[in-house]
Write a structure and sequence with these properties.
This protein has ten helices and no strands. With 277 residues, the protein is mainly alpha-helical. α1 packs across α8, α4 packs antiparallel against α6 and α4 runs parallel beside α10. The radius of gyration is 20 Å and the shape is globular.
Length: 277
């Protein structure tokens, strides 16, 4: 039961941290709860479908289907996060001056709420499919009874949700004027970490076998498999043995999103009116 609880706890934290960041980034928005709820429900439903079709997905890509699917999910999330940060950069000043503008903008469809719904859904889809596959494997192996598996999963879910809630409340303690800037940087690091993880998944599948030698090893200090290591991996893209391609991807993604946000934040001169003919 403890093993099931730890696995579910770890996966819930990874998804929960992303959900918390999205909720904090949408502070003041009138439809942030429906936006996030839709993403969570869609992610859970998708996770069940992916778990059910895991064998077919793997067979379709000669055994590497799970890795390719995971990389595609991560890459899509990176694009959605970059889109959100670019939009925030172009609208952040007026939002910081008047927090109610945030809710108005979302309700009018001006803010890319769809991007955030997709990010939440993809996070839940990725972690949820791993949970379903793991619990299904435990049940099939007969290592635990259904009751023990359910009890462990429930314990892990509650504990993971509690930790994620504390993270969210900590973000809400930040003054509204600074919260937009803080969440923008967190989303940038989140996206860079996802891009780096996508590359690592492709390397494991044999599709990107370049610059694969580890640059350093900090597993003695903070191993990837630990709870803190997984949380750091989600928040800032930490890995205890990064290789050259992962590092280059991380830096390139972070730089690209930062440059795009700076470009979008630069005031544009008003267009000169066209002379009447």
């Amino acid at each position: 039961m403890l093993g099931a609880a730890l696995i579910v706890f770890r996966e819930v934290i990874e998804a929960g941290l992303i959900v918390g960041i999205v909720l904090a980034a949408m502070r003041g928005a009138s439809n942030r709860v429906p936006t996030v709820t839709l993403g969570v429900v869609g992610g859970v439903a998708g996770a069940c479908v992916v778990a059910a079709l895991a064998g077919r997905i793997g067979a379709a890509f000669e055994g590497a289907g799970a890795e390719l699917f995971q990389a595609a999910v991560l890459a899509t999330a990176v694009v959605m996060l970059a889109w959100h940060n670019a939009w925030m950069a172009s609208h952040g000043r007026e939002m910081a001056r008047n927090l109610r503008t945030l809710g108005t903008a979302v309700s009018k469809g001006e803010r890319p709420a769809v991007a955030l719904t997709m990010v939440v859904g993809l996070a839940v889809l990725r972690e949820g499919s791993e949970v379903v596959l793991f619990l299904g494997g435990v049940a099939a192996s007969g290592g635990l009874t259904i009751g023990e598996t359910a009890a462990g999963a429930g314990l892990g879910l509650v504990a993971g949700a509690a930790v994620s809630t504390l993270m969210y409340l900590g973000l809400l303690a930040i003054p509204a004027g600074r919260l937009l800037n803080v969440t923008s940087w967190m989303i940038l690091l989140l996206a860079a970490g996802m891009a780096s993880r996508a590359v690592a998944v492709l390397q494991q599948a044999g599709y990107a076998d370049v610059l694969s030698a580890p640059l350093w090893d900090t597993s003695w200090l903070l191993p990837d498999a630990s709870i803190l290591g997984r949380a750091a991996q989600t928040l800032v893209g930490y890995t205890d043995q990064p290789n050259g391609l992962q590092l280059l991807t991380y830096l390139a993604t972070a730089l690209a999103i930062w440059a795009l946000a700076r470009f979008m934040a630069t005031p544009r001169p008003p267009r000169a009116p066209m002379a009447a003919e």
